Amino acid sequence: MIDPARKHPYPDALGPDEAPAPHALLTPLLGFLGTWTGRGRGGYPTLAEEFAYAQEVVFSHDGRPFLRYEARAWLIDADGTPLRPAARESGWWRLQSEGRVEALVTQPTGIAEILVGRAADGTVDLTTHQVALAPTAKEVDASRRSYTLTDEGTLDFVHDLAAVGQPLQHHLAARLRRVGDS
Ligand code: HEM
Questions:
Q1: Do the bridges between strand 111-120 and strand 123-133 make them parallel or antiparallel, or are there none, so unpaired?
Q2: Torsions phi, psi for 24 (to 5 deg)
Q3: Residue 1 — pLDDT band, cuts 50, 70, 90?
Q4: Which residues form the signal peptide (predicted)?
Q5: Residue with CA closest to ligand 1 atom 4
Q6: Which phi and psi (to 5°) does residue 99 adopt?
Q7: If you measure from the C-alpha of residue 5 to the centroid of ligand 1, how many angstroms do you get, rounded to a whole number?
Q8: 78-108 burial: b if 16+ Cβ within 10 Å, else e
């Protein structure tokens, strides 16, 4: 049993210079490590209107060749005031040779995705390998996600979705900044 009062013997690192040293396979994704926050916009043909949201995303590692991934979003109004909690998801990005990525992501809406793709030049592109749905989850057939580290120091995110009978198309786009950066 883990004693919650005791410090974890293998804490995650949030930066490339922290211990433990990152596994060599994480090299193409070192720029992703840390906590990011920002805003995005989303929509879908089945929704009455577009929405604006804020999001926090955390990437960490424990020295092995995978990233821990955690994302929380909440809807905001035009002034940025929080309206209500929105999507949450967490998972693991498993790094393989030549920058190949296998990502496992689960959501409290009953959706579990396995995505595959590649990390290169500060960009990760992921497409659906498999989706598993809980009995009461909405129908999701596929998604395509793109994460890009830009020259301005932002992490830009685009998410296309094929769901509820609609073909693959835009659902979300966001721009995040590393917490602590101005
Ligand atoms: C930042 C992350 C996300 C935000 C802010 C977001 C926001 C929303 C919102 C506001 C809706 C309308 C229903 C509602 O009000 O709850 C919605 C619907 C939906 N979203 Fe997302 N979403 C996110 C991520 C995802 C992801 C990762 C998936 C699946 C892979 C997904 C799949 C869906 C589906 C299937 C619907 C239902 C569409 C319908 O029934 O017409 N969303 N999303």
A1: antiparallel
A2: -55, -30
A3: low
A4: none
A5: 87
A6: 75, 10
A7: 37
A8: eeeeeeeebbebebebbbeeebebbbbbbbe
